[in-house]
Amino acid sequence: MNVASHDSAYILPPETEDLLRGTCPDPFAILGRQAHGRSDIVRAFCPDARAVRLVVQRPRSAPVERPMRRVDERGLYVGTVPAGARYRFKIGWADGWEETEDPYSFGLLLGDLDLHLFARGEHRDLDRVMGAQPMVIDGVAGVRFAVWAPNAFRVSVIGDFNVWDGRRHPMRLRHAAGIWELFIPRIGPGERYKYEIIDAERRLLPPKADPYALAAEQPPATASVVADTSPFHWTDEDWTRGRAARQDSTAPLSIYEVHLASWRRPAGDPHGILRWEELERTLIPYVVDMGFTHIELMPVMEHPFDGSWGYQTLGLYAPSARFGAPKQFAAFVDACHRAGVGVILDWVPAHFPADAHGLAHFDGSCLYEHADRREGYHPDWHTLIYNFGRNEIRGFLIGSALTWLRRYHVDGLRVDAVASMLYRDYSRREGEWVANIHGGRENLEAVAFVRDLNATIAELCPHTLMIAEESTAWPGVSWPVADGGLGFAYKWNMGWMHDTLAYMGRDPVWRRYHHSEIMFGLHYAFSERFILPLSHDEVVHGKGSLLERMPGDSWRKHAGLRAYFAFMWAHPGKKLLFMGGELAQPHEWRADGEVAWYRLDQPEGRGMQALVRDLNRLHRAVPALHRADCTPDGFDWLIGDDIDNAVFVWLRRAPDAAPVLVVCNMTPVPRPAYRVGVPCGGYWRELLNSDGAEYAGSGMGNGGGAQAEPEPAHGCDHSCVLLLPPLAVLYLTPEWAYGG
């Protein structure tokens, strides 16, 4: 040490050498203000500075500048100030002078209650506590950083503001929770940053992005960004006040699933991506015109790899910079609500990628993931699995969910890959998984997490939707937690989707041998609250588009798909359709392309779009088509045994509402003079004919309806004689109830 004086103020602590080497775990023991009798010692570590001066604030007089003595050539400076006096630094760099307060002059930043709740996994405001939070402390504006890394030896904040030098801003460890914290004055929103971590073995890790960051750089860049956390001016009060009714199980729910990047490309740019403002001008009016009640966005949380479609997420608190800034995302949600459209986000707590800048081995240990590969590695996606048994991990994930629902007013989350969370042997062979404490295959920790997640959201975000993509027969997925269920509002009906798509994909000649594929779903249709999903998963990986999966020539393909949509909209359960399906897109979805908008120049494409629009209109306007979706009293079979003709007939009902007769002819053969029982006499008006000319069908039908005769059939006192168009579905309702 080049100590030029024997003055005790310049005697350095023994840990100083560690600080200078960048390996000091407790910088506050050396830097900042240290009491020294009637004066205070101030130490600053400013590598590459040419000079450092103390600017001392004096009562009732102008500040006084004092030079600090450089006591080590690596950049350690020492000075003194009157005891308790306020001061700041004036630092001379090669390109000029910087004035700033001392980051090491501030006291403890997080409260004991914050630390206690965090350690228990019960903190419900982590988006306002962890990560980078712009704030004012002791009258000084800056950013408070907080990151969980309990097994690290040293953690520093690095960024443009300190030329990414980990020696400049080492953090303080709060041992009670394993959280490192630091307040850096005079920086604010827009700053790029990461954490530089030295692990317990004194190894320098790759720089880590902030798990709690509210914003990030646009990929392929990987830095976190200090977000503007000032309040957003919401204008969706009418929507939020009415959300309970709009999202009740008795309400119509028709969801348009969207991959934002490939919905529509900017004009003249086949590789460009529409930003939130452009999506507000284009996507929202389209969804409104089509009559969908909700948009479901494939993951918009920050993710490093475009090819994962967002399902390999690392920034669970940050809207992806691909589409704009966080406040622009908030403005998009606000605009959706003003237009009467709800917003559901796909959310992925089941796994995360192993990118070096992310959560994997975050502090040098398996912190977020399991250490045992049999528990911590997903063989399907080559990703890592969260350790749901850790309080802090459960809190981290629940905090993310709450961020989207509260900060951004999102109306629901569709939780991806729930089945992979519930079973320890999911996609694993014998010997590749670890049994639970009872020797079973159920992941008890994940089950506890899911219940905690849904119970918390039910309490703090009532009337929002938690939707499970769950593909097994796990009981009670959509039952309340208090009743032993998992607590989701809805479950995707994957069995219905697989069975009915298999049926529709068969040549009509052979459908008589697969009658049960249509019938079976009604055996369990009311065991859960279901959404019927025709999602992106059904039009990728060589499966072909929905249109391609229909058999026959072009006419039969289009007629079959129209019949399938009309069948789906009349079936118990809420509806979900992936973008492009409404245009009868002829090719499989490609994430690097866009929806086949050219289909609107073709009669078949326009006709399919018109059908989906009308199905949504009827779904919302006719109570029998939605009000009793989740209860067995909303459905009555009339004909389920006409195997030879592949004809299915049922009634949809709702309390205090007219019934709807649904007649499905799943062959290309017209069925003239087909008698169908109906529950009352009079004229039954045709609400929809999927073979109508307006949908590019043959136009064959019943002239707008049929008169019910007092001739019993199918357990009813009256019946209608109908012409069943080929590959078509009819909706009819009593004339007295017809509303247009």
TrEMBL record:
User: SMART domains per the record?
Assistant: Aamy
- Which residues are in the Glycosyl hydrolase family 13 catalytic domain? 257-619
Q: Which GO terms describe its molecular function?
A: 1,4-alpha-glucan branching enzyme activity; cation binding; hydrolase activity, hydrolyzing O-glycosyl compounds
- Taxonomically, the superkingdom here is Bacteria
Reactions catalysed, semicolon-separated, are: Transfers a segment of a (1->4)-alpha-D-glucan chain to a primary hydroxy group in a similar glucan chain
UniProt key word Ubl conjugation = no
In terms of CDD domains, this protein maps to: AmyAc_Glg_BE (cd11322), E_set_GBE_prok_N (cd02855)
Pathway in which this enzyme or protein is active: Glycan biosynthesis; glycogen biosynthesis
Q: Which UniProt keywords apply?
A: Carbohydrate metabolism, Glycogen biosynthesis, Glycogen metabolism, Glycosyltransferase, Transferase
Recorded GO cellular component terms are: cytosol
Example GO biological process: glycogen biosynthetic process
**Which Pfam families does the record match to this protein?**
Alpha-amylase (PF00128), Alpha-amylase_C (PF02806), CBM_48 (PF02922), GlgB_N (PF22019)
The Enzyme Commission number assigned here is 2.4.1.18
Q: Which residues does UniProt mark as catalytic?
A: D416, E469
Q: Which SUPFAM superfamilies match?
A: (Trans)glycosidases, E set domains, Glycosyl hydrolase domain
Q: How does it assemble?
A: Monomer.
**Could you say which protein family the record assigns here?**
Belongs to the glycosyl hydrolase 13 family. GlgB subfamily.
Functionally, this protein is described as follows:
Catalyzes the formation of the alpha-1,6-glucosidic linkages in glycogen by scission of a 1,4-alpha-linked oligosaccharide from growing alpha-1,4-glucan chains and the subsequent attachment of the oligosaccharide to the alpha-1,6 position.
Name by which UniProt lists this protein: 1,4-alpha-glucan branching enzyme GlgB
Q: Which gene encodes it?
A: glgB
